[in-house]
């Protein structure tokens, strides 16, 4: 009894010490933030002279910075390291989900006249413009909720991305000065991307279009995406898009294929690839869309593609192979195309997209309230999997795999 009592006293003492220490940390954090805010306001005052030398009026600068503070959310997001990298198939499952394809088709029907006009003027396939819109902001639903001046000024001040922040901030101020948007409505992401298709200010200045003819290049209008979609088409046009040609085609490799040729640096004509024994996934000859490269995003065990010039054009918008694949594949799906024929090497027990959706639907039926299934096995789904495993009396792994789904199907009707 005495030992228990002593242990309790020690524990209480440790808790009190930890609480006092935590309080000290909280006070210290508050002081640091206050000092940072004071330093930021000094930076804003000093940067005013830089902006004025670069053609920004005093009135524009003062109006744009009214109420602007150091945004600690931007600082945290900028410094945050990704906890894990997603496999290409997991990324594409989300990027080209049934919901995104369905919404894309609905938007194609809703904006048919506008999209045809844009396609005629810029020579860029309307489905590709739609795919960028879908990936960048979920067709206008998630355009960002951070003031762009505050975000870019924070990045410029915080130091890690000072050059980028200063350059983009000056262009954002010039956009305001031109009259395209007011500072309070210039909203976007923490990294300075804006509007329906997430242009950074320098890209906006280079490619933004006034498609409606009202004198403003308004890529933010929640009711009318005309300027934003036209701006994206203009970006692709200026980057060299070839209308009517695919980003790539799925292919079969011959058994004696030399994998040293599977590189985006190795380009050959379709005739040459045909000579080397490559065929489309259905067995036909490789179509002539100009020189292309063999691309194996998941290695030799996954689907194989020959990608053409338009693949590189998409990468001008976002220099990532996975992004270019997502835009191209989503555009194909919106157009009515199917999924890839060869399966991804997901590994034993891994779920396909339709099975992930089924897991979420069954967990909803079991009362775990995940909302509309999206196929993303994120923290909320993992928590629900863990909770139901505990309820079943199992060791809670939180892992949604084939074994879990089979049990879930039996227990939840």
Strands side by side in the biggest sheet: 4-3-6-5
Distance between the termini: 52 Å
Round the mean pLDDT to the nearest integer and report it: 90
- Derived structural class: mainly alpha
**Computed CA radius of gyration, to the nearest angstrom:** 26 Å
Q: What portion of residues belong to β-strands?
A: under 5%
Count helical runs: 17
Order of helix and strand elements from N to C terminus = HHHHHHHEHHEHHEHEEEHHHHH
Biggest pleated-sheet summary: 4 strands, antiparallel
Number of strands: 6
* Gross morphology: globular
Q: Which parts are unreliable, with pLDDT below 50 for 5 consecutive residues or more?
A: 1-22
Helix content: 40-55%
Could you write a compact summary of the structure shown?
This protein has 413 residues and is mainly alpha-helical. It has helices at residues 2-53, 58-64, 72-79, 88-95, 98-110, 112-122, 126-137, 148-158, 162-178, 201-207, 226-238, 270-275, 309-317, 321-334, 353-365, 379-391, 402-411; strands at 146-147, 187-188, 248-252, 279-280, 293-295, 304-307.
Your description of this structure?
It is a single chain. The protein is 54% helix and 4% strand. Residues 1-22 have low confidence and may be disordered. The chain starts with a helix and ends with a helix. The strands form 2 sheets. Strands 4-3-6-5 form a 4-stranded antiparallel beta sheet. Strands 1-2 form a two-stranded antiparallel sheet. It has 413 residues and is mostly helical.
Labels describing this entry:
single chain, four-stranded antiparallel sheet, 54% helix
Note the topology:
Layout: H1 2-53, H2 58-64, H3 72-79, H4 88-95, H5 98-110, H6 112-122, H7 126-137, E1 146-147, H8 148-158, H9 162-178, E2 187-188, H10 201-207, H11 226-238, E3 248-252, H12 270-275, E4 279-280, E5 293-295, E6 304-307, H13 309-317, H14 321-334, H15 353-365, H16 379-391, H17 402-411
Antiparallel strand pairs: 1-2, 3-4, 3-6, 5-6
Helix pairs in contact: 3-8, 4-14, 5-7, 6-11, 7-11, 7-14, 8-9, 10-11, 13-14
């Amino acid at each position: 009894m005495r030992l228990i009592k002593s242990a309790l006293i020690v524990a209480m003492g440790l808790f009190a010490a930890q609480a006092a220490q935590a309080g000290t940390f909280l006070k210290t954090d508050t002081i640091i933030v206050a000092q940072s805010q004071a330093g930021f306001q000094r930076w804003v005052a000093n940067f005013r002279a830089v902006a004025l030398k670069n053609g920004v009026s005093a009135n524009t600068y003062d109006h744009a910075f009214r109420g602007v503070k150091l945004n600690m959310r931007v600082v945290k997001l900028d410094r945050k390291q990704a906890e894990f990298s997603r496999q290409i198939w997991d990324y594409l499952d989300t990027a080209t989900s049934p919901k995104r394809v369905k919404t894309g088709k609905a938007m194609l029907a809703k904006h048919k006249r506008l999209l045809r006009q844009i396609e005629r003027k810029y020579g860029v396939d309307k489905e590709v413009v739609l795919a960028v819109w879908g990936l960048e902001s979920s067709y206008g639903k998630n355009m960002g909720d951070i003031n762009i001046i505050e975000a870019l000024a924070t990045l410029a001040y915080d130091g890690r991305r000072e050059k980028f922040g200063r350059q983009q901030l000056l262009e954002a101020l010039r956009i305001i000065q031109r009259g395209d948007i007011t500072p309070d409505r210039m909203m976007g992401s923490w990294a300075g991307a804006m509007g329906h298709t997430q242009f950074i200010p320098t890209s906006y200045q280079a490619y933004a279009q006034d498609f409606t003819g009202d004198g403003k290049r308004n890529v933010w209008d929640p009711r009318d995406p005309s300027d934003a979609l036209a701006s994206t088409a203009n970006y692709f046009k200026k980057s060299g898009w070839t209308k009517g040609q695919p980003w790539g085609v799925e292919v079969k490799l011959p058994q004696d294929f030399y994998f040293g040729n599977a590189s985006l640096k190795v380009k050959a004509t379709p005739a040459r690839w045909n000579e080397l024994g490559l065929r489309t996934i259905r067995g036909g000859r490789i179509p002539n869309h100009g020189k292309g490269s063999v691309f194996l995003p998941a290695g030799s065990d996954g689907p194989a593609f020959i990608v053409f010039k338009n693949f590189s054009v998409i990468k001008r918008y976002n220099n990532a192979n996975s992004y270019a694949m997502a835009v191209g594949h989503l555009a194909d799906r919106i157009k009515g195309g199917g999924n890839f024929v060869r399966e991804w090497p997901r590994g034993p027990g891994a779920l396909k997209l339709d099975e992930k959706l089924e897991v979420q639907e069954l967990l909803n039926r079991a009362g775990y309230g995940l909302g509309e299934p999206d196929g993303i096995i994120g923290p909320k789904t993992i928590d629900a999997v863990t909770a139901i495993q505990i309820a079943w009396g199992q060791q809670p792994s939180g892992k949604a795999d084939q074994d879990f789904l089979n049990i879930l199907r039996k227990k939840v009707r």
